[in-house]
Amino acid sequence: MTSIDVSRRAPACGHELAPEPTILARVVADIGRELDAAGVQHAFLRGIATFPELPRGSDVDLCLRRRDLPAFTAVLELICARRGATIHGRFRAGFLAQFHLHAVERDGRHAFLGLDVHTAEAAFGVPFLAADELFSDRRDANGLRLPPPATSALVDFLTPYLSGSVVHERYASRLKAVLETRGFGTRARALARRLLGSRAGAALCAEIEGERHDALRARARRRRCALLARRFLRAPLGSLGSLAAFGYGVRLRPLWKPGGRFVVFLGTDGAGKTAVMEAVASELSAAYRGTEPATYHLRPGILPQLDRVVHLGRRTQGEADWSRPHRAAPSGRLLSNLRVAWYALDYFIGYALRVLPRRRRNALILFDRYFYDYLVDPQRCRVRPGTLLVRLLAPLVPRPDAVIVISADLEQVQARKQELAPEESARQIADYEQLAARGERWHLVRNDGLVEEAVDSVLRALFVGRAA
To answer: Do strands 58-64 and 42-46 pair parallel, antiparallel, or not at all (unpaired)?
Structure first.
């Protein structure tokens, strides 16, 4: 049978000059060199097929021993500081630690990279392959250590297959090529039988070679249960502890230390906050892959408008009314407090039911206006200006990770929208800009020029800690 190359080397570039590596590609290269210099055994598993080119928003998987994780974290922080990258998010559950990296490249583009560090290959937190079995002295053409081809191909396929019953066509094709290669195929079959059992391992390899993907999906749950049962029989206490640690990291820890990014955009009508927010959501799709950004206008919307409750569900406002934000006079003192309490309750319930579940999946949540708007423009929701309950509840509603105040010159604002009188627009511009000085989570971004310039300032505020 013909031997094939399964080393996942970067494609040759002929006589063309290779593009200069990006900052995040240099970070990955530095990680390999620093770990080698420190004598830390490791292996790059996935995401480096095109290295040193890394597509925007790539995920790179690295494996090392658990005892080396603290040292690796310190090395990563030093490398990022040296290269001008930032670690904007961290997550850990069981045998997986995730680091989300950001860098502003030399051409001004914002680049993102997900770095997944495995201390063992696991399904639902229960390890089925130790890190030591993934280490190899072989290097690819770009100097990054890779695991043995047979082990790598099988693990790449098994990890999503056992965790989520997912059959990735690319991983299945690569494993098929390995199984059909003399030497590599023998080792892959032996490892599959050891992990899944003789019959199940042989059946899985046969289905891969025959490209019977429907059969693979149909038997995924049974094989996952069989593998977990084998692990529990061999090490019951360790497996139970691993499952508990995984459940804690995935289900419980996000309740008080959630991931993802929760961002609020404020600004007067005509400042351009909606256009900037939509452009930011598009730009950040590379950083939050696999989850659609969730966008809300003013409130989460769990509770209906108070007017609809009073009128027994009947709509009292049409779409044309929204173009006149001050169409009605504010309510009296008692009703204004009732409105504020009702809408504040929507923020608390909405955060628990809509925002927090998305943050557990490392999603992006954006609000076009928020409770803080009642401090500047309460009349929009028929709330009496100066209502004490607004000031009392503003520090208590769920806090976003960042509040972006979009502002512009009065002439620009009035040219974009004439929904408010010039004097009211001027007052709101001044009040929103004053609001932006409340703390480190608040950022003032000017939108007097191109939207792209405002988007760049927003991204710098979110990931670098300051607006441009």
So the answer is: antiparallel
Contact 327, 380 (CB under 8 A): no
Task: Report the run of H or E that residue 98 belongs to, with start and end.
Answer: strand 96-104
Every domain of the chain and the residues it spans: 19-147, 258-463
pLDDT digits (tens, 9 = 90+) for 307-341: 766 655 555 554 444 556 777 777 888 988 999 99
Class of domain 258-463 (CATH, top level): alpha beta
User: Which stretches does DSSP call E strand in 205-311?
Assistant: 261-266, 294-297
- Closest listed residue to residue 131, CA positions, set 189, 44, 201, 248: 44
Q: Which candidate, 419, 395, 411, places its Cα nearest to that of 447? A: 411
User: In the CATH hierarchy, which fold is given to the domain comprising 19-147?
Assistant: Beta Polymerase; domain 2 (3.30.460)
- 261-266 and 294-297 strand pairing: unpaired
Query: In this predicted model, what pLDDT tens digit does every residue of 16-67 receive, in sequence order?
Result: 445 678 999 999 999 999 999 998 999 998 888 888 888 877 899 999 999 9
**Phi, psi at residue 26, to the nearest 5°?**
-65, -35
CB 223 within 8 A of CB 200: yes
User: Per the confidence metrics, is the pTM higher than 0.85?
Assistant: no
Contact of 163 with 127, CB cutoff 8 Å: no
Q: In the structure encoding, which two tokens stand for residue 388, read together? A: 């004490």
How far is residue 177 from each of residues 2, 211, 220, 279, 429, measured CA to CA in Å?
A: 11, 11, 21, 42, 63
94: which DSSP letter?
T
